Amino acid sequence: SKDVMKKVSVANIIISIIIVIIAGVLFYNNRYNISNDMDNTEMYVMLRNMEVNANTQWQEFPDNKKLQNDSLSLFIRNLKTPTLMLRIKETSCQSCIFNELDRVRDLIENGVNCIILTTYNNPSIARKILCTTGCKDVTFFNISYDCMYEWYVEQLEVPYYFVLHPNKKASDFFLPEKSKPDITDSYIKSIARICSVNGVSINNKYK
Hints:
Helix content is about 45%, strand content about 15%. By secondary structure, it is of the alpha/beta class. Strands 1-6-5-2-3-4 form a 6-stranded mixed beta sheet. Helix 6 links the parallel strand 3 and strand 4. The longest helix is centred in the N-terminal third of the chain and has 30 residues, at about 1-30.
């Protein structure tokens, strides 16, 4: 009967949710080497990133009509390997932005390529910030506030990393916590193997 089918469907949904939660916890424990005695902040970082990936994983990257940035569209069309991206916005926490730009400089120095995706009303401000943090040679593209707003993670207004694939899909989203750099190190190590490094060997720090 219909009632029985409804009960079965609800039961399946509940079971699926439980499985996803368990799988997610196991995945993040293994992927990012988080210890069993994690503190509250570490737990928060893990759960927040699980939520972000559950809502944003494998999203389609916006097309040129939305991006309105020919240089970025050309970059995406010519993309041959998965590439690490850092997303920062003028409206985000400024100390968080500077913290991640310091990391990007370190990534580049250690052979991990990272492209920066910015949103500033005046792109020259973004360029000055990159110069100030020693990232003047890092490739960056400036886009409008709303062109990626359908992504759940965009609404959180914080810096985040993700991997952009040649098929224009985005994966492996990560929201860093500046007080827990070791977790970000683990994330970088987990994706460095698959990301473009411009032919440069990855140093031991991120292997």
